[in-house]
Amino acid sequence: MSTAETRTRTTPGLVPVPETSRATERRPPEPPAGAVPPRRSSSAFWRLLGSELGLTFRRPRNLVMLGVLAGVPVVMGVALRLVAADAELGGIVTSVAGNSLMLTFASLSFLVVLLMPVAVAMVAGDAIAGEAGTGTLRYLLAAPAGRTRLLAVKYLNAVVFSFAVTAVVALSALVTGLIMFPVGPVTLLSGTTVPVAEGLLRILISVGYVGAGMAALAAVALALSTFTEVSIGAVAGTMVIVIVSQVLRAIPQFDGLADYLLPARWTGFDGALRSPIDTGAMAEGLLTFGAYIVLSGSVAWARFSGKDITS
Amino acid sequence: MTREAGAPFGAAPPSAGAAIVTRGLTKRFRGGQVAVDSLDLDVPRGSVYGFLGPNGSGKTTTIRMLLGLVAPTAGEHTLLGLPLAGALPRVGALVEGPAFYPYLSGEANLRRFDAADPTASGATVRRRVGEALDRVGLGAAAGKRYRNYSLGMRQRLAIAAALLGPRELLVLDEPTNGLDPQGTREVRALVKEIAADGTTVFVSSHLLAEVEQMCTHAAIMSTGRLVAQGTIASLSGGQVSRVRIETPDPAGAARVLAALGLADVRATDAEVTAELGGHAPERVNAALVGEGVAVRGLSVVRPSLEDVFVGLTGEGFDVDG
Amino acid sequence: MRKGTFVRWGVPIAAAAVIGAAIGAGPVVAAVSGDPALPERSAQQLLADAVAAVERTDGPLPMSGTVRQTASLGLPALPQMGGESPLALLSGSHEVKVWYGAQDRLRVAMPTHMNETNLIVNGDEAWYWDSDGNTATKIKIKAGAGWAHEPATPAPTPSDLTPQAAAAKVLAKAEEHTAIGVTNTAEVAGRPAYQLVLRPKAEASLVQEVRLALDGETYVPLRVQVYAKGSAEPAFEVGFTQVTFTPPAEENFVFTPPAGAKVEEQTLGEVISDGKAGEHTGEHTGDAKAAKDLKVVGEGWSGVVVAPMPDLGSLPAEAPGGQGDPAEAKALLDNVLKSATPVSGTWGSGKLITTKLVTVLLTDDGRLLAGAVTPEEIVRVAGTR
Q1: Do B177 and B295 belong together in one domain?
Q2: Is A8 part of any domain?
Q3: How many angstroms from the chain centroid is the CA of residue A221?
Q4: In this structure, is residue B116 part of a structural domain?
Q5: What range does the domain containing A151 cover?
Q6: HEC states along A24-67?
């Protein structure tokens, strides 16, 4: 750890370096020789993950995406408020107008179809392909980040982003709902009424479930990302899979297939809105997500660990 | 390799063995095209090793194989006598030009790559990044976004990234590419300075002059094959020096040189050249003067690497690539 | 390629194999391990056991589970059917959740995306809840009329002294039209089950056989499959995919209309249940009137219902308080009619709609004939006024 600075002291710089002395003064006292503990690989892993998260959540493109996702529930809330004022409408509109917490479920239900998958695919599809495209991948691997380790960090980062996307939608919807609609006991889909606290708990369950569903999509996007050096290709490929799944799901002849399609499972968060909570269906959904994660993850690993990095 | 006490790399002692050894290293790409063919490199510790060859001769592919970016089709290699994962933290690399995150500052970029090194400490990253930036003269531009860097600054940032930790080996692929003469001079000075510190430097170049100026050793690549390697002196030794004498009496001079035992004497209107062999130039001069041959000028023409290259491959060297 | 390419790709291949195995585990395990082992039973013994089990526990056991209904009747694709419409049950598969506490404590929920319809019966009070309409319908049941109509349980009369006698009586009555037997055991909802096979004797019937799976332990019917002639897969199937025989939580049978919901009331004298024509005596005068005009030609499996063509706009909503959308029904009918084949005979002409299980003939003189019979049979019935 101290070699670099020792070297700087013993050898003059290439060009005058007026800042060296300041930097030297600033640094903490050196540990005695030999007392440096061996680096634990786990802390190095978290450090790389921290760097990855910093990159993801500081990247302007991703922030814009999150902003748009946060904006949709607000727009929905305003629109429903205006509509609910003068019309007798059934279904979700009535529920939302009747209770502030319902806007969260309505927003998730609406955004989980397309917009949230787009946001997640943009980050996860970019994970490897983006680095390969800019050439930074070769420097990360020469650092050496380690292929399996880098892939794991990239995936965990995408998982965190998946949950962040879901949480942003839920939070924005919750705040909008609390401002625009009355707060009170929540009527579940089964017609049962639960207190606000339990309603919030059920929002939490929904966020967890949808987050897991988005994490499964992130695994698919990551796998595609290892096959290309053009990140937009991986993103588009992921969205094609999502849309084809949506179409297959709508065709009655493929009814048996629907249980294994991600988009069909994403909407399963409404199990949290039933009484009792439909744990069976939600557990099946989580198992499906798990299967996608294991399968896509292993494909990504098999591809990436053997890939020639020529970019 | 000597290193000051108190400056170990992590807990591990400096590795022993040659800096780079490759045996039969071969890369055949999917189209069947052989980029590197049975490469046997021996890069001694502490050398500044020039990896010379025209563009497309397989230099970059070799470097990618050395760093584990590309899997060899056949053959093996070691860096610093260690398995690759253990060696790479001790190796700084610049591969095929700089590549950074355009929306991050130079400093943030270096922190990012430092985080990817599992042996680097997050506690010292601030200091090490600062020092690396200062070392390449980017201290003042540390906070500037990479997309606003000039070409030379980008190249220097890439070198700074290679200097983030204590390195035993520096692999620099065309480090002066795209630099102006001033930048080129700076990089060459930096390489010399790093080498003076005991670090082995493996520098690829398509510029003969650059390698001749910077390096102690060199390897010459041509279309994926290694044509020659060794110290610069021994490489040049393969081609003999010639003595060149300017004289109004070429015939007399030629006679004297032949009498001295110099081989391959060639005479023209105003000068005579011959292979110098083991003769000292001053003795040749003395002999000429002693025989009454007027000498206007005498010089020894040492062979350049280019001559070596042409001599070995029979091809011209594509200097500008 | 890097060494170990095959090893590396072995990992996703193994993962795919494991996942595939997990998905196909049920059928594969069933195929490998064969049918579950249960003591041999004849049809009569089985029915006797079932009746005995019902008597022992004073009615069917409390249970809860998921029922999946799958219909592949061979109807033309239905356009944009809302999941909540009863008509949607005619194609594809649907799941309902059932909580059964006792004869008068029942909850049936049909969950669809962001929506749920519920029927909750508790004593003499019943609620129908539709979350999409935010409507709770209170259904009053007139005294004397019971909700108990577990369809497949043979109902013994007090005169049947022993289960054996009851079973014998049921069998004797049924075997007039049906050959009853026992086939290999099956696994339904993870439980070993006996399979009773009812095979129509009538030649004209479209039904090959009906399989009734009875739980090997409790004799509760777990699945009904209707096979059409010439088809290896059931045309209609309803059965548990998951079942537990423990009393469901009490809260399932308690319903209080949520604040803000529309509350409606409806009184029923008797439930429109078994679909037996001519027995509708409720307050639905329209139904009663229609029932008068209904007649059944033929007996047993080859019975054909003959009725005057109903007004398309007033197709009855099947569920109590259900939101049977006339427009939707009309769309369905139009779609079905498009695929109808014109037929004619001495009796006149009409349009014939054939599915795997049901044949319907709409005659031009305004009659509607329907039955689980071959087109030839229905055309023959049309000729016999």
Answers
A1: no
A2: no
A3: 11
A4: yes
A5: 43-305
A6: HHHCCCCCCCCCCCCCCHHHHHHHHHHHHHHHHHHCHHHHHHHH
The tens place of each residue's pLDDT in chain B, 321 residues long, gives 333 333 333 334 455 678 999 999 999 988 888 999 999 999 999 999 999 888 888 999 999 999 999 999 999 999 998 888 889 999 999 998 899 999 999 999 999 999 999 998 889 999 999 999 998 889 999 999 999 999 889 999 999 999 998 899 999 999 988 788 888 888 888 888 889 988 999 999 888 888 888 899 999 998 899 988 998 878 876 566 788 888 888 888 888 888 888 888 888 888 888 887 778 888 888 888 888 888 888 888 877 777 777 777 766 655 443
Centroid of chain to Cα A79: 27
Contact A249, A263 (CB under 8 A): yes
Substitution target in B117, B157, B159, B186 with the highest count of A β-carbons within 10 Å is B117
Same domain? B106 vs B184? yes
Under 8 Å between Cβ of B277 and B240: yes
Distance CA B99, CA B94 (A): 9
Give the closest-approach CA distance of B169 to chain C in angstroms.
25
In a domain, A187, yes or no: yes
The angle subtended at Cα C315 by Cα C314 and Cα C319, nearest 5°, is 120
Q: Element (H or E) spanning A244, and its range? A: helix A231-250
Please state the domain count of chain A: 1
**HSE (side-chain half, CA atoms, 13 Å) at B199:** 28
Same domain, B210 and B283: no
Q: Are C94 and C68 in contact (CB under 8 A)?
A: yes
With CB atoms and an 8 Å threshold, state whether A141 touches B69: yes
Strands C304-308 and C341-345, bridge-based pairing: unpaired
Binary contact (A92, C114; C-beta < 8 A) = yes
Q: Is residue B312 part of a domain?
A: no
Distance from the first to the final alpha carbon of chain C = 81
Considering only CB atoms, C16 lies closest to which of A95, A105, A295, namely A295
Residue A14 maps to a domain: no
Domain-located, residue B44 = yes
Examine the predicted complex and report whether its ipTM is higher than 0.85.
no
Q: CA–CA separation, C196 vs C12, rounded Å?
A: 44
Residue C111 at interface with chain A, using a CB cutoff of 8 Å:
yes
Nearest to C140 by CA among C332, C340, C361, C320: C320
Per the structure block, which two tokens stand in for C264? 């409606």
Range of the domain at B288: 240-302
Q: Model's pTM, two decimal places?
A: 0.81
Crossing angle of helices B250-260 and B281-290, in 10° steps, is 120
Stated as kind and residue range, the H or E segment containing A276 is none
Give the rounded distance of the alpha carbon of B242 from its chain centre.
26
How far is B77 from chain A, CA to nearest CA, in Å?
15
